[in-house]
Amino acid sequence: MDKTIDLLLHLLRCSLNSTMPSPSLQISEEEWTSLFWLARKHGVVTMINDVIEQMPPTQRPQGDIALSWALSADRTHYHYAHQQKVLDKITLQAKEEGLDIILIKGMTLSKLYPHPNSRSCGDIDIYFPGNYQKGNLLLGAPDAMVDGKHSEMAVDGVTVENHLHFLDLHYRSQKRAEAYILQSLPQASPDGELPPMANMVYLLMHTVSHLTAKIKLPLRNVVDWGMFLNAYKEQLSPSECHKVLRHIGMVDAFNLLTQLAAEFIGADLSDYIIGTVRQDDAKRMREMILNKSYMESRPKISNPIIYLKVRLQRHRQRRWLYRYLPANAFERSFSRLKHIFIE
Q1: Alpha carbon of residue 88 to chain centroid
Q2: What is the DSSP code (8-state) at residue 29?
Q3: All structural domains of the chain with their residue ranges
Q4: Structure pTM?
Q5: What are phi and psi of 250, to 5 degrees?
Q6: Residues 200 and 236 sit within 8 Å (Cβ to Cβ)
């Protein structure tokens, strides 16, 4: 494997488990530079910087690249603090208006990390049970339009997504998962978090949605998945997880992503995996997630014949992936056509 990827995973695991790299580890200036840009693409610069700050001076990056690591971490911490203030403001307004509020994704997941403010959050995702329109009004955008499953607005410079639905509802699995989450809302925590089993369903479906939409899966999303499962080992029964997952048809995706997440975060999540994982698929998914160029934009192809040929070849290479998408066999046939002709 590429040494830069090895270094990325090693330092990331050190950060997530509050351990230190080997005293013998030596990283050249060129390697630190490559590592910085890779970590930035995967959204884990600040997590790794937490380890860098604890390393002996002789092991740390030097010069301009050291400044890049430090400045990126400062920006992450600043944005996180600002987002927290905005979230506190929204939560207080909702309480004053008598509106229940459910917080999903980023800010809730950050609490599971050793340094919550090192887990960068792009936006704030909120669900107002039964009060979507009142939520828009509270957020200062009463005429906000629904785009997919939510509306989007800016609150004090922070992007806030007010969810009409938790998930996209294109396929049977997504609809069943949404129904399960909704019926679990009465058991939400006092601070507005989904109960662990419903949160597990939501996070799995959200993680897989990256594959459904763009055939891309950022490392940080898989790390989030692993940190969540590791934090809730006492509350989540593997057998109950699989019972729910069989109902929504996502057992294979759960097992595969859990195996990869365990490797990435350096935790034992084997108790969650019931059944077998196709190791050839795990290898392919691992490469998809970790390959340095997987998020690079692709050049435009103007010739329609060449474009179609490339799309068909790409589809053939990805056909294994359909086993893990939230679609049954009938739905998958249409999904395949979509991914052939639409990026």
Answers
A1: 23
A2: H
A3: 167-299
A4: 0.89
A5: -130, 25
A6: yes
